[in-house]
Specification:
By secondary structure, the chain is of the alpha/beta class. It has one domain: 3-Layer(aba) Sandwich (Rossmann fold). The protein contains seven helices and eight strands, in the order E-H-E-H-E-E-H-E-H-E-E-H-E-H-H. Strands 3-2-1-4-5-6-7-8 form an eight-stranded mixed β-sheet, sandwiched between helices. Helix 3 packs across helix 4.
Amino acid sequence: MNTSTLPSGTRLAFIGGGNMASAIIGGLIRQGLPATQIDVVEPFAAQRDKLRAEFGVQTFEQADPALGTAHAVVWAVKPQTFKDAALACAAHTRHALHLSVAAGIRSDSMVGWLGTERIVRAMPNTPALVGLGMTGLYARPAASPEDRRLVEAVVGTTGRFVWLNAESDLDAVTALSGSGPAYVFYFLEA
C-alpha cells in the first residue's frame, strides 16, 4: 500500500459508482476521508442506494452543480458512456483534476469533452478491488506535482502504482497486469 494522504478538506466526485469506484471509495473512507467529502453520480437507483448505505456518501442520478466543489473527479464509467457523461459534467468540473479509470479512452478525447488538460489516466487491475492491485498511471503535462500526489493518495487505497512516461505504455500495463491475475486464477482452478 502506498502511504500518500489526501490534503485536509479534499473533496472528490466519482462519476460512476460500480465495483472499481466502490473499491476506491471504501479505501478512502478506511484511510479517514469523511464520507461527506465524496459525491457520486450514478444513474442506477439500486447502486445509489447501495453506495449511500455502505459508505454514507452523497449520490446524484445525473450531473449536479454540487460537483463544482470537487478538487478531483474520478471517472469510473463504462467506456461507451464516458463521452456523454463527460459532456454532461464538464460545466461543473472544468476547474478540477480528472482521474480516469475507464479503459481505452485516450486523454486527448477527454480534453475535448472535459475542457481541461488536467487529466490522469489510471489502469487498475482486478486485485485493486481488494486493495492488492497494481495501477499504471499516466499524467498529461498540465497535471501538477500536487495533482500527482492527490492521484497517488486516491489510487494508493487500492494497492501499488507506477507512473508511466507515455500514455501508450498503459496498453502494455493493461495486457500484463490486467490479464495476468485472471490467467493465474484460471490455472489455480485447473
